[in-house]
Amino acid sequence: NIYTQSPKQADVCDLCGAQLIQRQDDREETVRNRLATYDRETRPAIEYFRKTSPKLIWEETAAGTPEQLLKRVSKRLQKVISL
Question: DSSP states of 11-65 as a string?
Fold first, then answer.
């Protein structure tokens, strides 16, 4: 993490000495573009289904283990499927 744990030598991994690079999809501009695309394309779809089919849209916390989350989501999907 170049912001909170920068390497001792710039652009070099402290553990293995390999060159550190920043992936294109980790750059601020890329993240901003993804968020703009979400606001433009995904949010309206969510709002549409929230209004027209409210039982198909719900918010779920990601708290707990992956297994606990899977159990909660599976339980909710079973309710939707049985409608």
Answer: TB-TTT-PBP---GGGSHHHHHHHHHHIIIIIHHHHHHHHHH-GGG-------S-
